[in-house]
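Hey L., structure's done. Input below.
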Amino acid sequence: MVPPPPGEESQTFVLPPGWQSYLSPQGRRYYVNTATNETTWERPSSSPGIPASPGPHRSSLPPTVNGYHTSGTPAHPPETAHMSVRKSTGDSQNLGSSSPGKKQSKENTITINCVTFPHPDTMPEQQLLKPTEWSYCDYFWADKKDPQGNGTVAGFELLLQKQLKGKQMQKEMSEFIRERIKIEEEYAKNLAKLSQNSLAAQEEGSLGEAWAQVKKSLADEAEVHLKFSAKLHSEVERPLMNFRENFKKDMKKCDHHIADLRKQLSSRYAAVEKARKALTERQRDLEMKTQQLEIKLSNKTEEDIKKARRKSTQAGDDLMRCVDLYNQAQSKWFEEMVTTTLELERLEVERVEMIRQHLCQYTQLRHETDMFNQSTVEPVDQLLRKVDPAKDRELWVREHKTGNIRPVDMEI
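Output:
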């Protein structure tokens, strides 16, 4: 319920003294007598007792006491006393406001962790902030039952758990790459050691040259694997570790910020409920004293009624102030929730993309390593194709022959 735009009343008619004009959330105009707290749908006439326009009797509005309906909500709250948890296709559900002809009911709203939401059965489906995407900012406003117990988990807490799980997965990937590096280093060490082995070192000829090249290829391959392990460390493992540390800091910042806002929101909600109860007690006291006045007139009772009215008005003002502070806190929480969930979404996309790029770098290094390994055995293949047993025999015979005179038969 908001006041009409400035100047609108004066362009059509002038209200009698003490009357104010307001608009309900549905856009219908109604009138409040600030002196008697009388409310009516019909425009009051400047002449007492004569309505300005024909129509049904005044009014189906809930009774008011000092500007407050008996339900404990302001009859004509200021425009600032509003609350909108999320943009909705319907009217926003206001904590601490009501409309003529229909009292605000707690059944129309649900409260989760001190946050008021429109009830799904009474409100149209809310518009999504990013309807074309399955975005974090649209689907984590309510709580979810904890599968591990009987409690519930807040939607934002689920998002944090996913981020922490992502951080753990990244840590495990980094540890996996570290183990891969250790295997490569150990493999290179063993290859280098094997290349120095003296077994079959006395093989001769073209086959001996090929065998020597086989042993040399092991040393070359060991160097290739050492370079592979060094690149894995600098281009895959270290970036994963560094990014994980930054990611952890971002998560802590988001967690602390939202937690502080939720604490403030909880405190504001408690203040509203306390002020609402105080207003109800003051109104009940005022009603009781009014009934006493009707039974027996006395100056003392009238004075008590004035005091009770002042206290009731003060309690109503306190409630409106608490509602306004709550709405400000909830509005801030809503804005920060949207901003933070979108930031968590960005961080998750960034994390996945970073890991994907470094795994691509891993496969690229593997391909390069395989290519270099292949190049170490190519000289071996060339020498193996040149192995010639006949040529080797010739060279060996030339070097080791003992004589070319064949034995002859003995004569008698």
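The chain is about 60% helix and 5% strand. The two ends are 148 Å apart (CA to CA).

-- N.
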